[in-house]
Here is the input.
Amino acid sequence: MATVYIPTHFRRLTGGQSKVTVDAADINSLLGALDEQYPGIAERLLDGDGEVKRFVNVFVNNDEIRTLQGMATPVGENDKISIVPAMAGGAVLRRRS
Amino acid sequence: MARLNRDQLLALARREITEISPQALQQRTAAGESFTLIDIRERDEFMLGHIPDAEFIPRGFLELQIEQAVFDRTAPVVIYCAGGVRSVLAARNLKEMGYENVYSLSGGFSGWVNAGYEFTVPTVLNDEQRIRYSRHTLLPELREAGQIKLLESKVLLIGAGGLGSPAAMYLAAAGVGTLGIVDFDDVDVSNLQRQLLHGTKDVGRPKVESAADRLHDINPDVNVVAYREPITSVNALDIIKDYDVVLNGSDNFPTRYLVNDACHFLGKPLVDASIFMFEGQVTVYQPAVPELGIEGGPCYRCLYPDPPPPGEVPSCAEAGVLGVLPGIVGSLQAVEAIKLLVGFGEPLVGRLLMIDTLDQSFRTLSIHRDPNCPLCGSQPTVTKLIDYEQFCGLPSNNGHEPVLAIG
Ligand SMILES: [Zn+2]
Here is the structure.
């Protein structure tokens, strides 16, 4: 079972869990299995073409999947998968008067 | 044991040590040989002038500190003093320590100057600074030269909020000579849970003003330059161009893309960080600067080519943030800035540090330059600053009107 690190933004969908384990052969099936376990994740992660959204990075161990084999990147038993969305933090958008 | 008088000892040392004349040193250096020069005179002598690039290790500390300056026992080392006497005795001791290619400069510094060669008058720490920065100068990675570099450095902080607070305070304490702060916000009571630059008495004041007061209190050496204005496509290049390193503590996407692009165009290293609830990210975007031999790493656009649609990623104002978290993350930004300014250690270039304070995990992920990056790729499409509100799907303001507060 690979370990998936869930970013804070998505923990609402995993009942607050920051790490979950998923059994899958590649990233494509891993994200599918994740969405089955925790419905809504795929929608947050993937665009209309089934690719990872451009403001999200998915890493297998230390490396981003775009530098590997994309959605077809194989996932091993002990691999650590990190989902890293862009974070901006806590600014209040407002107009200065 | 043989009893030697001063002249006999010197004669003995001269037999064992090779002396090199200023002329020979100059010629061999010009021909491409490299020597580590060690100036072993007293501090007040060194302060009046020294051979360029010489390391200063006073005679009394030579044996104790030489291994930090010259690790390789086979490296050619030239020791010099004022007239070439102390250096012969010193060189003999280094030979005894196993330094194989140690020379004494005949005639010493006076011989060098009389031969008409160039020398430099060093910037040195004054007495108060020597005490203030003593815990830095003890570190072999900094020493006095590194501390002087910090005093001569300029760091720009985008935002005097959660991340900017600890970063600015530690950089001021570290003696970074000039700290620029961009922030047009006023201090609000809700800031005080995490923004330690500001106190309860500062509520309602411009943040740049309370920041300047706090930083001068920490270290009067520091020159604080306040920009009480938002950073926009109109002023960004003008503000950033005078600084050595930029720290991004802004909390919105348009400013992140703007600062990334501006730093790329100006070749300035950007220490970027962001925080959310209990989680933080830190990395260094180092643009390639071929003239300086800097290969560079990925930029913000390599990592996140498109911004999230507005509303897709909640803000700290909506979701909250643990007050200590920016303290950790902003302090790490200060560490990266100091490493970049002085030039030691391995900066977080091409690495993204992920911090989760819930399980106290620190993980480092590799990030790569994207050859198709619209900014730093081989066929760039972003060639000047753009309208970043529009790029991020927010109401356009042509880069003129300030719309963004910094948290
Ligand atoms: Zn890039």
